[in-house]
């Protein structure tokens, strides 16, 4: 069922003519921005970009042990940091006075360790978001930028050469164990050909984390309809760059490979290394947040955007490039697999270009060369 203003089909007939119709404050005016998760990998770069654009920034972060092994600093890029868990309603209410826009980066990410993580994922990501939305409404704050993720799509877009567009289900253990990594056509079994996934693709979360991101999208869409507030949801693809946390069960592949190389170990590439992703540099992601912040001042409604470089790479290519740049051992392709993993997710970046004016500028080779020696966070 399509639901106008919802994450399922943001391009309703009305929005086709005029997505997120305009009204509200002037773009570029100095605003007071609250960044949640502002001491994290992406949040820190967002704070830097907001300062660079002249905004007043308040930073909150829970310092969750899954993301932070070291104690939180007192400031982030010069902005005072308040240690707040978003599930603490009184604390959230206490930081919203005078805030114009919330940029909500705080979340537990990754595949996690096991199902014991489930309540904490839902608590941090969904209960935390619910409390934030309630208190924003009470404080009369109508503008929100949400850090979402490409994980909401599950598998990317595929085509069968004989049967056309396809949406493959989760791959079976038997197929993966036999090295059949490409999802098959449900009709004829032929390996599907991957294509570009755009924002109208159905949501199909395949992990607990992905389910919490879908829930965040729906909660914010309901909030937008009920309050008349504006939400821009940024579906990040695979973000990498300076300040990534060291290897943890919650890390993305770039941090895992970089941590291995730092320890003198070869990156271990799962499956056959041919799985595709879009690696987007964290400074580009910060710039996308700035563009999204501006959009919340000129439009109303709920809208999602892929935030990607538009230049896909395979995991094998990325590992090889990073190992070369770091002067470390060459990657090993192991054939191992993880059940929660999808095969290919490659973004269509056009909507963010045309509507937000966002275009990634960091070339993968340059970004990887920098990342190979950039500091990781403890
Ligand atoms: C990742 C993140 C997700 C984030 C999204 C967008 C995880 C588990 N997923 O999704 O939180 O929202 O990017 O930024 O953190 N791989 C290896 N060797 C390893 C680890 C992984 O080859 O040591 C492979 C995996 O099998 C997979 C690919 O690398 O095929 C990407 O893995 P990963 O970064 O963990 O997950 P994504 O699904 O891309």
UniProtKB/TrEMBL annotation:
Ranges where the record places region Disordered: 1-24
* Matches recorded under Pfam families: Epimerase
Q: Which InterPro entries match?
A: Epimerase_deHydtase, NAD(P)-bd_dom_sf
Tell me the route in metabolism or biology where this protein functions.
Answer: Carbohydrate metabolism; galactose metabolism
User: In what residue span(s) does the NAD-dependent epimerase/dehydratase domain sit?
Assistant: 33-166, 197-308
Q: Which PANTHER family match?
A: UDP-ARABINOSE 4-EPIMERASE 1 (PTHR43725:SF53), UDP-GLUCOSE 4-EPIMERASE (PTHR43725)
Q: Which family does it belong to?
A: Belongs to the NAD(P)-dependent epimerase/dehydratase family.
Protein name, per record: UDP-glucose 4-epimerase
Species source reads Actinoplanes lobatus
Q: What is the lineage of its organism?
A: Bacteria, Bacillati, Actinomycetota, Actinomycetes, Micromonosporales
């Amino acid at each position: 069922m399509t639901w106008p203003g919802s994450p399922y089909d943001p391009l309703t007939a009305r929005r086709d003519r005029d997505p997120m119709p305009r009204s509200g404050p002037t773009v570029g005016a100095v605003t007071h921005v609250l960044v949640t998760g502002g001491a994290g990998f992406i949040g820190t770069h967002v704070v830097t970009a907001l300062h660079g654009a002249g905004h007043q920034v308040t930073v909150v972060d829970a310092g969750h042990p899954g993301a932070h092994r070291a104690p939180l600093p007192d400031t982030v890029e010069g902005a005072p940091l308040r240690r707040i868990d978003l599930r603490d309603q009184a604390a959230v209410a206490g930081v919203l006075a005078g805030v114009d826009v919330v940029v909500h980066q705080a979340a537990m990410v990754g595949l996690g360790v096991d199902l014991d993580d489930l309540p904490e994922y839902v608590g941090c990501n969904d209960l935390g978001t619910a409390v934030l939305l309630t208190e924003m409404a009470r404080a009369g704050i109508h503008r929100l930028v949400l850090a979402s993720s490409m994980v909401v799509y599950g598998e990317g877009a595929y085509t069968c050469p004989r049967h056309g567009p396809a949406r493959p289900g989760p791959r079976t253990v038997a197929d993966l164990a036999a090295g059949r990594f490409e999802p098959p056509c449900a009709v004829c079994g032929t390996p599907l050909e991957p294509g570009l996934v755009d924002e109208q693709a159905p949501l199909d979360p395949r992990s607990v984390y992905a389910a919490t991101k879908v829930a965040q999208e729906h909660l914010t869409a309901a909030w937008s309809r009920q309050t008349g507030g504006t939400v821009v949801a940024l579906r990040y693809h695979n973000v990498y760059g300076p300040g990534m946390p060291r290897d943890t069960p919650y890390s993305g592949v770039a941090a895992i490979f970089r941590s291995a190389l730092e320890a003198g170990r070869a990156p271990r590439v799962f499956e056959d290394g041919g799985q595709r992703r879009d690696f987007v540099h964290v400074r580009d992601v910060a710039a996308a947040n700035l563009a999204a912040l501006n959009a919340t001042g000129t439009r109303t409604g709920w809208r999602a955007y892929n935030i990607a470089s538009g230049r896909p790479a395979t995991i094998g290519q990325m590992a090889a490039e990073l190992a070369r740049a770091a002067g470390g051992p060459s990657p090993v392709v192991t054939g191992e697999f993880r059940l929660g993993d999808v095969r290919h997710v490659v973004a269509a970046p056009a909507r963010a270009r045309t509507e937000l004016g966002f275009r990634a500028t960091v070339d993968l080779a340059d970004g990887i060369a920098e990342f190979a020696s950039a500091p990781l966070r403890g």
